[in-house]
Amino acid sequence: MGRRNFLRSSAAFAGLGALAASLSPLRELGDYSSVDEFMQKYYKEMTPDDMAKVITRIENDVQRQYGIRPHVRDLKPMDGAEFVYCLNLTRCIGCRKCVHACVNENNQSRNPEIQYIRVLKLPHGSMDIDKADHEYNPESVPEKGFFYMPVQCQQCHNPPCVKVCPVHATWQEKDGITVIDYDWCIGCRYCEAACPYWARRFNFTKPEIPKERLNPNMSYLGNRPRKQGVMEKCHFCIQRTRVGRYPACLEVCPVGARKFGNILDPDSEVSYILREKRIFIQLKEEMGTNPRFFYYFEK
Amino acid sequence: MMRATRDYLTFLWRCGRIAFVGDWRYYAWMGGLTVFCLLGLHAYCIQFVHGLIVTGMSDEVSWGVYIANFTFLVGVAAAAVMMVIPVYIYDNEELHDLVIFGELLAVAAIIMCLAFVTVDLGRPDRFWHLIPGIGQLNFPRSMLSWDVIVLNGYLLLNVHICGYLLYSRYQNRKPSKWFYIPFVFVAIVWAVSIHTVTAFLYVGLGGRPFWNSSIVGPRFLASAFSAGPSIIILALQIIRRVTHYHITDKALLTLRSIVQVSMIINVFLLFNEVFKEFYSGLHVASSTYLFLGLDGHHALVPWIWTAVVFNLVSMFLLILPLTRSLKWLDLACVLCIVGIWIEKGMGLVIPGFIPTPLGALIEYTPSLNETLVCLGIWAFGLLCYTIFLRMSVPILQGRLSKANEHLPEPDAAADPATAPVPH
Ligand code: SF4
Ligand code: SF4
Fold first, then answer.
1. Which one of A198, A220, A278, B255 has the lowest number of neighbouring Cβ atoms within 10 Å?
2. B129, B207, B356 ranked by CB distance to A160: nearest
3. Residue B318 to residues A228, B81, B227, B254, B280: CA-CA distances in angstroms?
4. CA distances, B419 to each of B26, B156, B422 (Å)
5. What are the tens digits of pLDDT across the range B244-302?
6. Does A227 sit in the ligand 2 pocket, CB within 6 Å?
7. pTM, whole model, 2 decimals?
8. Could you tell me the residue ranges of all domains in chain B?
9. Domain B39-409: top CATH class
10. What residues contact residue B173 under an 8 Å CB cut-off, 6+ apart?
11. Hey, what domains does chain A have and what are their CATH numbers?
């Protein structure tokens, strides 16, 4: 072997060694994805059979990971229902009970912490969001001279997040809820940039939920545990509201500031509020997003 | 048919081979770049396993230096084709052969762009969801889907044009006009489109007033046509020095006039935007944060003022006859490239997220891991460009051609790459 050849093969070996070393972090990959998950079809293209298989896969995955057999369903929108949320700003005291009820109900990651509802503390008399305090933490609420405004996904009629998604991973359902197929999202975060209400949350790493806190009542488009690298957000507690229950944030609110219901039903509470209240507002109305989330004022 | 395929494969094989031979400087350069590529790959593997948490990004600032570099490089890719205009529309002979170097730069830049978008994805394993037919490309509603199409289309166009011209030269045949001139014209229009579409990616977001301004598109083009040719001016001088490929000063000065005009327009548009933001006093939170700092947060202030100063100095240098001397021209080019990189990257992408739509002020600094990934991609891009040049320069010089197919291949030591070639 000539000197040149020797040099060449040593260079090649060193190169391969360096390449292997660079790739070494991949050894910790663990349960990143399975073949079934990789090949899984788009939600709207799945047959009921496909869906049944996917649900079994998810139930198995959850059981393996958390030791609990969950009950996962693929709940479809109800006929004749379009959901609307009304929030009474006069009553809200900024206690953040809704924030935590939501986290418990919807299996959000506790580490890092993901929350769908952000409560803003605003100075008396101002609706200028730039003045909002996100991190208020006093001994007791409410504080004098301030009011509180919880913000979550506004379930827009014209959702910018849906428009920008390059792969149709997020869309608006018949009952007005904008959902995300967590198994289809590629994690580009374009929707997060597009949402004018900062409602979307990204799983920057593998979500962590303590076993004993897992809510086993799950739905595919709702609160089943998410994977690293995908988007999520408030879905009006699809696993509850599509079977006629109230969202978790409403049930926990100690002052009854939250009202939820079917706007297509003239006798519902929300229909009454939107018909009878002299003032109610949509956040950033000028955006043209036309939210299904209304803020109103009443003693 | 058989013969043509065999010839073509020989061509590819010989090109591939030559990429691995050179003098010690070539090996040192390529070796250095490879080290950075591997460091970047290592950092990316860490990110792949642990998620984007290893970057400095957050729900508040959800895009960072990856998308910033992407935006800058789309401009470089678009501008590389601007050399084509004087050649094919005004028959400027000086630049004729140099067009290939410009287009190869475009190819390398697009490769880097695609790499930057890929590393930004949370689920890169699901990229196939973007492929029309088997995936669910949201075309034409999502601007990102437009970007996927125009970038890949642009890559193919330029690969075709360069590949065809080089192969013809290799075979010592005159390229048939029908096989490339139409593509050249399509590529010119396409170049404008890739940058416009990338601008629309930002402009289209109503919830982000900092981006939602119609001047962003024109500003993108102006800055691209300054930074792109500047890079080419520098690259051509390096090529000239290390390969003795004949490049006239006149060609460089032609490019200078392109940079000159674009830079003036660029600075003018920047001024327009700053005026509108601050004089009207509407939606100024992001601009205030960028230029002056807001509520004690001012991470970007030193950056943007560096960019402004670099842009201005570069513009004045370019206007002065001084920059007819290459030393000064190089300085102006470097200032222009760095200035625009900051302005398009840190200056455009990041402040769009600060404050958030709900008024929170969260700052962003790239993490070490994120920076290594960026360096890795830049090194990879430079590696690609070097290889492209290593293949194309001997072909253009006639040293690598079908005629000498049967002669023994030049070996590293005897390789005349660095020896003067008579012309
Ligand atoms: S509030 Fe944001 S996430 Fe919710 S539908 Fe509107 S744009 Fe989408
Ligand atoms: S992050 Fe997911 S849902 Fe959002 S735009 Fe990207 S692919 Fe669509």
1. A278
2. B207
3. 49, 21, 13, 12, 32
4. 14, 34, 10
5. 788 888 889 988 998 999 999 999 999 998 898 888 877 789 999 999 999 899 999 99
6. no
7. 0.94
8. 39-409
9. mainly alpha
10. none
11. 83-297 (3.30.70.20)
